[in-house]
Predict the structure.
Amino acid sequence: MNRLTMLVTAEGEWVLEDSAEFRAALGDPEPDYDGASFAVKNLGFIRFQVLDNSVIEIELHPRNTHLPALLAVQQQILSSRVNLFRIKYFETSWHSEIMISAERAISRLSELCSPEITPPSNERFLVEAKDYSELFDSNERPLRPIAQKWRMSFLSDNLIRVSSPSRSSTNSSPA
């Protein structure tokens, strides 16, 4: 089987798997581990293999893939004559998908690498339940002075309420 393996760096540069350029991009001149797999899973590289000029295998970790690397691979797919693609991608484990057209492979790579966007909340403020005693745990808490004033406002309010009935009873007699 004839196999050509190249890697695309996070910056979109093409390097051969065991070349000096790859080791420089990896940052390890003599890795004693599978440097290509490490680079794919952790550094945002994409492995690109052409098998017998009939299948292209693309291996990536979508969450770590950078846009220049993705665009370089998509450009290479468009310029190839191959119509069978295997996309291997890592989420919590490795997954594999087969595509039978360059357009579908490019589209699927874009889907995999698109960032997860949380729609903005329609509410003006986000409310989360918290234990207010956490505010008093440390002097370094930035909201501690406000929390102390807030707590004291309840104490003084209770004192007024407690003293109010006695005042009203003493003030109820005509002067």
About this structure: The helical segments are 20-26, 35-42, 67-79, 102-113, 144-171. The first strand starts at residue 3 and ends at 8. The mean pLDDT is 84.
